[in-house]
Amino acid sequence: MSGLSIQNVKKSFGQTHILKGIDLEIPDGEFVILVGPSGCGKSTLLNCIAGLEEVTEGRILMGDIDMTYAAPKDRDIAMVFQSYALYPNMNVRKNIAFGLEIRKMPKQEIEEIVDRVAKLLQIENLLDRKPSQLSGGQRQRVAMGRSLARQPSVFLFDEPLSNLDAKLRVEMRTEIKKLHQRLGTTIVYVTHDQIEAMTLADRIAIMRGGEVQQFGTPQEVYDEPANIFVAGFMGSPSMNFLRVEVGGADGQYHVLVASEGHTYKLPSPPTQADLSAYVGKQVILGIRPEQLTHVMPHLESGPFVTKVAVKVEVTEPTGADTLVLTRINDEECECRVHPAEAGKPGEMMDILFNMEKAVFFDSETEARI
Amino acid sequence: MTTHNAQASVLNENKLDGNRMSTSKRSKGIDYWLPKLVLSPTVAITIVFIYGFILWTTILSFTKSRILPQYEFVGFEQYVKLFLNDRWMGALANLAIFGILFIGICMVVGLVFAILLDQNIRAEGALRTIYLYPMALSFIVTGTVWKWIMNPTVGIEKFMHDIGFSGFSFDWIVDPDMAIYTVVIAGIWQSSGFVMAIFLAGLRGIDTSIIKAAQLDGASLFAVYTRVIIPSMRPVFFSAFIMLAHIAIKSFDLIMALTGGGPGNATDVPAIFMYQFSFTRGQLGIGASSAVIMLMGVTAILIPYLYSELRGEKQ
Fold first, then answer.
1. Which sign does the torsion angle of CA A218, A223, A225, A229 carry?
2. Which of A156, A293, B39, B109 is most deeply buried (CB count within 10 A of its CB)?
3. Are residues B39 and B128 in the same domain?
4. CB distance A102–B223 less than 8 Å?
């Protein structure tokens, strides 16, 4: 077993630069998720790690060994593909055994491994079926079984769950997490689904346009996003972004928001940002919907909590909470309130602005202040 | 008065409804009968000219017919005569040589070309068209062209002599032992491009991540093709085989144009035998029996194919 070190990896096709210098240090046994919108280069990076595509520049190390130009089969990695990529002409048993047979492992040993893997993934009863006779979830298991059989030092997953229906996806997500906890093997997992990223990862690398925007634990990227892109990408419903003016002095700063003719001063916690350079200027306030709640007495007295009267535009019940869409500073703003407390469209209602976890972004660079 | 009117209108409506119903019934009748009416001439023609003549030929094969059909039945006498005829046995042997080599080499050449074309090469479209183009020619043209190319006094042999290789010899077409192989060459030239197109379509249907997965599993490119891709193209092989097999059994025009069945009877095949016995040598009975044997050959290939196709549809 070994960690993975990606050093300044670049990949270009002619003049098109897909990866613009990626640096990731992945310790042994970590579950890392590459997440980002389509075309951000996450799958290309995975293919580069697998050796299916050659990097233009940079190095890829596994343990201490430079694997940048090693053939895929020499890298001791296994990959699970979005389309499962099972061999259609072989039954499940052969599919799992193929990689071992190619490596000329003794028959006896292969059988033992296949049985062990099948037991682990609960596919013993499917071993003699062809891939075409399996459901999506079963194919997914077989694809995982095939990669498990070789006991590689790194697993690569390329959007493995995106072809499954929603319920099965949640089940398989849990299974993958359990599997990682049991095996403790390094995993690099690509997805465009931020919920998958949050739930599975030890650390998340958020990518955009061939660059890593932030590499941190799920809680870090959620609470302390590096920039507006990361803040907007992680979390559902998305974080609210409001253009606000900064006021105050001597370490006590506030931002101004307007709703229905009234202006409110929202205090900025000094732990969140140093706004001294921005007094009198505009910044972008990032605040998640769950920080904008209905009036709860035990919260109301908090030092960074302000009651704001807003007009309800649209309500979206989700069951546990109701999302209330309103307008603040003439920009759309979503609040998460208790279903019983939600106003009706057109009505006014009081919302508590809890600034404890608010973040601020420079309005030009979009980086976090 | 008003109630009366109302009643009347209700009655009217009922009547209208009745009318509408009858029209709809009639139009349904037209919908029902029109397709059958339109298709019936084709069905009739097919029944008479294909199945009818198959039946007639089969009947004739059991009669003593010579130049003209006659209906004195002699049981399997014509079949016995047929299989005692050396020329027929020679034709069958030729068909075996031609069939095996033609189908085998076409498949190999087609597959190799398809795999090479599948490596994301430049100008693939142009190459594909070039390889496929012989299929656009009729076998008569192919036969005539190859007759000239392989003719020792005008073709390759003369060309090699002209550029100085005076010892060069390529006279298969006039050599009774080798002439059948010239038919194989021309047939392969004509059909392998088509087989390539079928295989290429099959290769394109394979998910590229399967190839990636096999590479990660440690398979070489050769192993990827021999152990994963080619085995998973079994239906494509089957289709290609059926196409080539019935071309081989029915082959007539290519051989007529290329060698005329000669030299002597060296490139005789069942189709030529059947044609000559039926229509130029006045042995309609033997000709008919040879035709029935050929039909049985084609059927033996097609029935399993149709069976697997239809069974596949049901699933």
1. positive
2. A156
3. no
4. yes
